[in-house]
Amino acid sequence: MRDFDLSPLYRATVGFDRVADLMDRVLTAEVAQPTYPPYNIEKTSENGYRISVAVAGFSADELSVDVKEGHLIVAARKAPDETERTYLHRGIATRAFERRFALADHVKVTGATHADGMLHVDLVREVPEALKPRRIEIARGDTVEAKAVENQA
User: pTM value?
Assistant: First the structure.
C-alpha cells in the first residue's frame, strides 16, 4: 500500500522533472537498505563534502569510483585469493559491494584517496555564476528619461 501515483505532479509542473523522479525513486526504493560497507558523509566547508567508506581488506586496485548519470558509484571486487587459508574467525568482510550516492545539481567529485582502510571521496558544489544571486542596480527616474532622450538624438 506504499504505491503513490505521481503522474498528476508531472502534468502540473514544468521543469521539476528531477524532483519528481527523486520522489518517485525514494518512494519505490526497497525498504531494507544495505548496510555494508559503513560510510560517513561530512561537510568539510561551505561547499565541500567528503564521503568516507570503510573498505578494510581492499587494496586501491580493487576499488572503483565512478560518476554516472548524477550518481556516485563506489564499488569493490576482491581479487581471488590464491593461498589456502583456514580461518578460526572471519570478521573482516571482503565481499564485493556497490554503493550508490545521488549527487545534487552542480556537485562534482574532486578526488578520491585510499588510506588506512578508508576510501575518502571529496566533493564540491560549484554553482555557476548565472545561478548565483545578484543585485540589480535601480536607476533613478530622471536618469532613465535622460538616456531615452540621448538615444533618440
Answer: 0.67
